[in-house]
Amino acid sequence: MPTAPTPRTWTLRFKHHRSTILLHIDPIQTLPSIRRDLLAALTQTNPTGTFNTHTLPQNPDEILLAKPVDINDLSLGWETLASTSTTDSETSGKGKGKASSTASSVTKGKNSLQDCPQGAGLRDGGVVAFKFKGQGGDEGGVRDTQEEDEDEIVVAEEDRGPRRELWDVVVPTLEETYGDQMDEEEDEGVGMDEPTGR
């Protein structure tokens, strides 16, 4: 379970559909441990075992995470945050001498740096999308980011541009968030700028 926040602690916003879960994490905490913390929070707050009509997984490895392509425009999509793992040559003990062990430690250090929020390019207060394996978007749920018109000539698969996974994240518009307040402020401000006659 996560410890109490400290001055070093970050707060990340984990989004799924219209739900947002805030987690306090350490910037160099590993992604697998963050998945464990997220699953623990989901399990505690959803005793029925379902979250947004999806069954909660038993294993935190079944939770997929992604960061925004552009933090200022979440509609541009999401990049998957994959936990890095050591290669077979690093774990099998094969290889010779000091040079291979040095290269192995450098690679492990680089991978461990990328396997944490700070190394993945997240920031305090950042947004992270999450979903469960088999929810859609993984294996067959990938869509083209380039829209196709009905009259458009069919383009070869490799020429279509980047492909991104689908993530169920609904970002409310300003009108949805502040609609009533914005209308009230506009009504109140109508007579404020009018010049007073003397």
TrEMBL record:
Domain of life per record: Eukaryota
Protein name: Uncharacterized protein
Biased composition (Acidic residues): 146-156, 177-191
Organism field: Extremus antarcticus
Compositionally skewed regions (Low complexity) per UniProt: 98-110
UniProt-annotated stretches for the region Disordered: 83-120, 133-161, 175-198
